[in-house]
Amino acid sequence: MSLYTDYLAEIETRKTQGLSPKPIDQADLVEELIAQIKDAGHEHREDSLNFFIYNTLPGTTSAAGAKAGFLKEIILGQAEVAEISVEFAFELLSHMKGGPSVAVLLDLALGDDAGIAAQAADVMKTQVFLYDADMERLKTAYEAGNDIAKGLLESYTAAEFFTKLPEIDEEIEVVTYIAAEGDISTDLLSPGNQAHSRADRELHGQCMISTDAQKEIEALKLQHPNARVMLIAEKGTMGVGSSRMSGVNNVALWTGKQASPYVPFVNIAPVVAGTNGISPIFLTTVGVTGGIGVDLKNWVKKLDENGEPVVNNNGDAVLEQRYSVETGTVLKINTKEKKLYSSDGSEELVDMAGSFTPQKMEFMKAGGSYAIVFGKKLQTFAAETLGVEAPQVFAPSKEISHEGQGLTAVEKIFNANVRGATPGKVLHAGSDVRVGVNVVGSQDTTGLMTMQELEAMAATVVSPAVDGAYQSGCHTASVWDVKAQENTPRLMKFMNDFGLVTGRDPKGVYHSMTDVIHKVLNDITVSDWDVIVGGDSHTRMSKGVAFGADSGTVALALATGEVSMPIPESVKVTFKGEMAEWMDFRDVVHATQAQMLDQCGGDNVFQGRVIEVHIGTLLADQAFTFTDWTAEMKAKASVCISNDETLIGSLELAKSRIQVMIDKGMEHENGTLARLIAKADARIKEIKSGTRPALVPDANAKYFAEVVVDLDEIIEPMIADPDVNNADVSKRYTHDTIRPISYYKAEKEVDLGFVGSCMVHKGDIKIVAQMLRNLEAAEGKVEFKAPLVVTAPTYNIIDELKEEGDWEVLQKYSGFEFDDSAPKQVARTEYDNILYLERPGCNLCMGNQEKAAKGDTVLATSTRLFQGRVVADLPEKKGESLLASTPVVVLSAILGRTPTLEEYKVAVEGIDLTKFAPGKGKPLDTLSVHY
């Protein structure tokens, strides 16, 4: 048996699934293809040639290295293939996106054969994915008097790799396809339970929406061959929830354009739309592929004769349709006028200026944002090497500055980390800038795609500008199944080799960590001035400003140490009143959302903006409960304003947890963790000395809106309800329906309780233990009428709980406790009415491994209430994922239903819940169980 015959066997297996041959990424298989191509009489020569040309992945894959080497042999006349001329060999190299292909092109361009050198130089002028070693070769050759090198540098200075590209079409015809009504989560486009297949783009494409939807999209393409399909969230926002590149990849696969004829299943330029626009993190991902995001505004609030919104019996605004986008509607986008028109162009429907900023149009022209980022870097290098000023080819950075206006917290952070802006110029919201990234996180269900992106952009090592980078194993922590066993070790090795601290040790020395990525990033973020990017929508830190991002943006941040984005507007959130002693901080979080909607007439002012939350006295773990939830508020990010003492406490806590990581053997050979501790020490010194106090906004900063949360109004626990039976489909599965527990009249049956995910911290697990102690003391024993799944977010927390005596209480009542020496290899499908102590990680919240039984009503501390995520539907009963605080979840699992307020107060009596006293400026009392 050879690798090629194994590949043929795999092809036959894929045929049964309706799939094409899997793209090749390994050099040893390509070497076999080459041998068979050279053998003129080989029975598999024709197929081998096709696989070599059309099915070999580019970039820094080992397969690309073998392919580039053989093409070099053909160009130099060392090998002859009738079907691959020298010109065709150069064309193939031009589509291989850097790495070994650029190395070959430079070898040829700087070689002794003048004719070949000229041809290679012409191809090199179209390439942008050059790294330091490639640029150093060019610089050395130029300084040695090489004319080819000089010509390349002159071309790069003029940015001919961009200016000679075709302009984007002035008019784009689109045909509409309504994917769903209401908010569309990325789970519809790329379901979490199919995370294992994301790196296999064709296979993963089969999971988008439904097979019926895919057939309907294909039919639309046949009916309208000159139009591009525009995928729509009717009466909602497109792409809420996770920041999935796989979702955009799937949309592009079915509706976009092939990026290269020689790279299979990599499509670009999808068109997506929503009545309320596109979720911020999803819109960034669309830009990565050069796609178009449309804010349709096709439904608007109906107004009465006084200009006031008309509301229905539920108090919701009544919407009326401005224009129809029902499936099959043909529309026209004018990219020059930046407007959406009716099919004949006679009626202007909506202004699209936000979709066609100069920067976004550059992405579209270049086929994605990566080419622009690398192109700008290449132009700067070339101009500096030649000692000339680079011409203004790219759209200038949009720099907005208002004289006399102060800065919000996020504006301060961006100004401190901006790259390439006018020196000394103060920038305000709306400025479009490059910003340095301090911390980068990659998670395991998107990590394989980040690997592919890094290989495609020919990156080999994490940028030295990045202070800390971490690869998690949390999204596949619950079940060590065959898919995880195949994918996780490969991912961890690649990322560790690239320079990241990894949750699992590729060498098998330290204990495998499955800690939730955002919790780890929250610990390794050691400055309130940091910029953080992570491959998950809940990358929302309590220090600095963090952005959830797609796998491609994560790859770009890892490779370059920066990202490009506009400085977001901010909404200021402050608090007044006093928190009732029986309330949990999770209730403050839910109340913030509810009170914001009430204060703003039902409009979500948080959407697409930064929430600047003035928490002041809450340590990092607790503050994270708020910042984490801002993803569900549809905010772009959040910034937590703390006082000096609290920030120092949070940094000391971060230091201690980083040291534990070092003690466990997780330090990378590049010294990442030790440098983070040193950085934390330096920041603490600055705060204590007064040279640079904790970050605060200026008193005269300008906000889009200000929300004041009245703590006095929060008198009972709150539940975020998916409202699955709402007559208005667009109102279902949003995070905006926040109800007090009294709404349920102690009659809402609960089939499963879940305490876990990134929304809980050490204090939450301590609350579970204390409630069990209380109930045992009062009743003699504790009996669960519904299963309770408890998942600590990190091993550090479990170790601390063991030291403090809480873990043994949980063990006493558990009917199952995870065992890392024998991890589960099959996902649980049935639950008993017991306590389950599950492995640290995402567990039920992720929905890709563990799930509740179909049709269950789940009460959880997690963040996800989307349809089918935590619990799927039965034909006769919809599954529900309701979200609440830890005490409510625990008590509901014990009772088998939602509690009354009186039952709840009795259950939490004597438990030290969150201490939160806004405006008093006092550090936390260490007696709080949340510490």
UniProtKB/TrEMBL annotation:
Quote a single Gene Ontology cellular component term.
Answer: cytosol
In its keyword annotation, does this UniProt entry include Ribonucleoprotein? no
Q: Name one GO biological process term.
A: tricarboxylic acid cycle
Q: Could you tell me which InterPro entries the record lists for this protein? A: Acnase/IPM_dHydase_lsu_aba_1/3, Acoase/IPM_deHydtase_lsu_aba, Aconitase/3IPM_dehydase_swvl, Aconitase/IPM_isomerase, Aconitase_4Fe-4S_dom, Aconitase_B_HEAT-like_dom, Aconitase_B_HEAT-like_dom_sf, Aconitase_B_swivel
Please give the superkingdom of this protein's source.
Bacteria
Is Glycosyltransferase a UniProt keyword of this protein?
Answer: no
Residues covered by the Aconitase B HEAT-like domain: 6-162
Q: Which residues form the Aconitase B swivel domain?
A: 176-407
Keywords associated with the record: Iron, Iron-sulfur, Lyase, Metal-binding
Stored SUPFAM superfamilies: Aconitase B, N-terminal domain, Aconitase iron-sulfur domain, LeuD/IlvD-like
EC assignment: the record states 4.2.1.3, 4.2.1.99
Top-level EC class as recorded in UniProt: lyase
Q: Which GO terms describe its molecular function?
A: 2-methylisocitrate dehydratase activity; 4 iron, 4 sulfur cluster binding; aconitate hydratase activity; metal ion binding
Ranges for domain Aconitase/3-isopropylmalate dehydratase large subunit alpha/beta/alpha: 412-896
Q: Name one Pfam family in it.
A: Aconitase
Q: What is this protein called?
A: Bifunctional aconitate hydratase 2/2-methylisocitrate dehydratase
Q: From which source organism is this entry?
A: Cognatishimia activa
The organism that produces this protein has a lineage beginning with: Bacteria, Pseudomonadati, Pseudomonadota, Alphaproteobacteria, Rhodobacterales
